[in-house]
Design a protein that fits this description.
The chain is an alpha/beta fold. The chain has 2 domains: 4-214, TIM Barrel (Alpha-Beta Barrel); 216-257, no CATH class. The chain contains 11 helices and 11 strands. An 8-stranded parallel β-sheet has the order 1-9-8-6-5-4-3-2. A hairpin with a 6-residue loop joins strand 10 (220-223) and strand 11. The longest helix has 14 residues, at 48-61. The chain is globular. The relative contact order is 0.12.
């Protein structure tokens, strides 16, 4: 296969593993990269010294390209940026913030930058900021999500039409058929999270992995939209959130959740 994502990342397949904070350590990232995709270390749950340790272990475990996912709202963002530059990381995926803040510095140090967004407005702003590709993340995505609730299959062609740089589809893609559908709508590659989180190389707890594997339709819900939208499995925490919503609807404007 020959497409823009393969050229951008120098990988065998246009498949990116999601940088799922505490689920995506060096073991998962290196395994995905060794298999021909692009593995990502999820730095959002790591102290700066922990990220450096994971980067070094990943470099020792693979000679293939890998990257680091950095949420831009992370409190130690400057230290993380310094670490990826000093450790020679070649690819950085940014999310949860303004890509214009750090894209130039990363690119000036030879790093390929990809930004995650859930709407066309911020896809255009990301392109203007100089990123090399966009992750178009639809409503179906696990973890943090966009407030617009635009489905992946609607979002892909809209963002593809809005920007000239490569588009990576994300959200609800976990099979070859899903990947084919995304690329038929214009995506140049795909990013997959939940399918990888359940793998043996993932650092997620076995109980969480089993919950993901056993989940069926209706077992997740997008919550906390007024704070930071996140897709949750139906657990005791979700039940507490729903109960709190009923108890104090005016406190945080929960009627819009």
């Amino acid at each position: 296969m020959d497409n823009s994502i393969l050229k951008l990342f120098n990988t065998e397949y246009p498949i990116v593993q999601g940088g799922m904070i505490w689920c995506s350590g060096w073991e998962l990232a290196s395994a995905v990269s060794n298999a021909g995709g692009l593995g990502l270390i999820g730095s959002g749950s790591m102290y700066p010294e922990v990220l450096v340790d994971h980067i070094r272990k990943c470099k020792a475990a693979t000679n293939k390209p890998f990257g680091v996912n950095i949420p831009l709202l992370y409190p130690n963002i400057e230290e993380h940026i310094h670490s990826v530059i000093e450790e020679g990381v070649k690819v950085v995926f940014t999310s949860a913030g303004n890509p214009a803040t750090w894209t130039k510095k990363l690119k000036d140090n030879g790093i390929t930058v990809v930004h995650v967004t859930a709407n066309t407005k911020f896809a255009k702003k990301s392109e203007d900021a100089g990123v090399d590709a966009i992750v178009a993340e639809g409503f179906e995505a696990g973890g943090h999500n966009g407030r617009e609730e635009t489905t992946t299959l609607c979002l892909i062609p809209m963002i593809k039409q809005a920007v000239k740089i490569p588009v990576i589809a994300a959200g609800g893609i976990g099979t070859g058929r899903g990947m084919l559908a995304a690329m038929a709508l214009g995506a140049d590659g795909v990013q997959i999270g939940s399918r990888f989180v359940a793998s043996k190389e993932s650092s997620a707890d076995i109980h969480f992995k089993n919950a993901v594997i056993n989940a069926v339709e209706g077992d997740t819900k997008l919550m906390l939209k007024q704070v930071t939208p996140v897709r949750l499995l139906k657990t005791s925490f979700l039940i507490k959130c729903l109960k709190r919503k009923q108890e104090v609807p005016a406190l945080l404007n929960f009627q819009n959740y």
